[in-house]
Amino acid sequence: METRVLVTPDVDLTYDVFGPLPPADGRPILLAVGQPMAADGFHVLAGLLPERTVVAYDPRGLGRSVRKDGGTTFDPEVQAEDLHALIAELGGPVEVFGSSGGAVTALALVAAHPGDVITLVAHEPPLIPVTPDAANGFRARAAVTEAYEAKGWGAGMAAFIAMTSWAGEYTEEYLAQPAPDPAQFGMPTEDDGKRDDPLLSDLSWAVSGYEPDVDALRNASSRVVIAVGEESAGTFTDRTSRAAAALLGQEVAVFPSHHGGFLDGSFGYAGKPEEFAVRLREVLG
Question: Tens digits of per-residue pLDDT, 61-100?
């Protein structure tokens, strides 16, 4: 692995390169994109794709990428422009694997710069606006941030787990539930006083609130594949993914494991990274 930095007026983007640049066999670079996950979340997956040159980056303001624009929020369209600059630096077009909020950024990239991307595998993008219960989805998201603002990280994370593991649409019954006890999920009950978590605060509301440009995606030269984990059935990101795929006139591609199926145990609940890599290789063709 080699670590590099792309210096731009707004941000110093740090990225990790696995394999030769340019790729030795002429195949395109595989760019791995997360949000709020940084490059280190893709190291295991990169190691399981030794035949590919894989590049994973830290989004602006996350991990090692230092933003210089004075902003604090995470906007998919802004991050898409960062990826556009990175792809120009690397030499495109590329293939992209986007995970969670990174899948949202990658969809914004294809909409704005389809010539940058040959194939995008967008794995479980959390797009509230595409769901039939979007109004209640926004209320559920607000409840997570309210719990975080009121009682800190443990309370916010407990509320986030409750939201993302709920099966089916967000009903009045769900919204009427009391905030879950952090201890129930093994989360700390003490408040560390911080309120800058990119997942639990409102700093990433632009990610889950992003409305994809369906016409641009349908007409793009890029091949777009919306993917879900087999263990995610019925949950929030499964529903958002299936709704997004339907808007694009396609069926979802099913991958092994859950929302973080490409992760090992270093990031909590382990997925099935070996099986995930096999499926990704198959979908990319």
Answer: 999 999 999 999 999 999 999 999 999 999 989 999 999 9
Overall pTM surpassing 0.90 (yes/no)? yes
d(CA 205, CA 88): 28
| E strand residue ranges, the chain | 2-7, 11-18, 30-33, 54-57, 66-67, 94-99, 117-123, 223-229, 253-255
Decide if 141 contacts 128 (C-beta within 8 A): yes
Q: Both tokens of residue 100?
A: 């969670």
8 A C-beta contact, residue 209 and residue 128: yes
- DSSP per-residue codes, 167-183: -SS--HHHHTSPPPPGG
Q: Do strands 11-18 and 94-99 pair parallel, antiparallel, or not at all (unpaired)?
A: unpaired
Q: Any residues with CB less than 8 A from the CB of 22 and at least 6 apart, and which? A: 53, 91
Instruction: Calculate helix-pair angle for 134-151, 153-165, nearest 10 degrees.
Output: 160
- 4-37 pLDDT, tens per residue? 999 999 999 999 999 999 998 889 999 999 999 9
